[in-house]
Amino acid sequence: MELGRLSTDALASFAAFADRLNFTRAAEDLHISQPALHVKIRKLAETVGRPLYTRHGRRIALTPAGEAVARLARELDARVTAFLADLDGTAASRLPVLAAGEGAYLYLLGDAVRHGVRLINGDRARTLTAVRTGRADLGVAVLDVLPADLATVPLDAYPQALAVPADHPLAARTTLALADLAGASLVVPPPAGPHRIALERALRAAAVPWTAAVEAEGWPLLLHFVSLRAGLAVVNGCVVPPPGVVLREITDLPAVPYYAVHLPGRDTDPLVAGLLTRIRAALSTGSPPCTSRSPSTSTPPPRPSGIC
């Protein structure tokens, strides 16, 4: 690769594309045409000598090379910003950026994100991509497999629980086992989601028959359908049920571990360290609405892996 051929304009354009993973929206952000953006990214990929993204149907994902290029683009932008600020005799500063999913923001992070933090909302895959590309300084996600290319910091673990109407027969129990779900009609996420995959695997291993009542995305919607008596739902024990719905821990399902993730070598970076301090303080003071519990003895520890 000829590094001299790397265009700063193309790098900046690719960083905008990496944020959106959508050519139309990225082109609008850059105030250029979509064909022009396609050309910039194609030429950048030719210079790098590797594909920068893959397309699966309508879904676009960055390749490892694409993540590295996006990270380089943001590092260069930060250096230029710091250089210009130094010339002007001013201090270069920015707010820390945190990426996390809906559940983490609603039920885990509490006051840690109230002031002085830029927020990115996305599922686990998008959270990890935001950290890998340098878009986010820190990410928070549930990880059952630890990514080998990122530094991981355990935050807390929560049991999995069955959400049931308060007058349901299972609500009279303090804890449940998977076998108690036999024949249940469940509100579940779409089939491709990690929670759905893990739940189906556990129910199949326990030989528990069940049926899907409704497919819905996000804890609030799953809990809403439970409150409407459309079915029962297995949820993260960290969630707060709506009125009329109670949670009962399922003892033979593994606890759900939350981790903070950041790029290697940024442990002492004030932006990363400051965010971690705020999150730990929120967890220790109980400002998140959920209460952690010790993981079940059957909970397998997360495995280091390059696959997320």
Automatic annotation (TrEMBL):
HTH lysR-type domain: residues covered: 6-63
Pfam families xrefs: HTH_1, LysR_substrate
Biased composition (Low complexity): 284-297
GO MF, one annotated term: DNA-binding transcription factor activity
Top-level taxon: Bacteria
PROSITE patterns: HTH_LYSR
Keywords of this entry: DNA-binding, Transcription, Transcription regulation
Amino acid composition bias (Pro residues), ranges on this chain: 298-308
Cellular component, GO, one term: protein-DNA complex
Keyword presence, Membrane: no
Chain spans, region Disordered: 284-308
Family listed: Belongs to the LysR transcriptional regulatory family.
Name of the protein described by the UniProt record: LysR family transcriptional regulator
Organism: Actinomadura verrucosospora
The organism's taxonomic lineage, starting at the top: Bacteria, Bacillati, Actinomycetota, Actinomycetes, Streptosporangiales
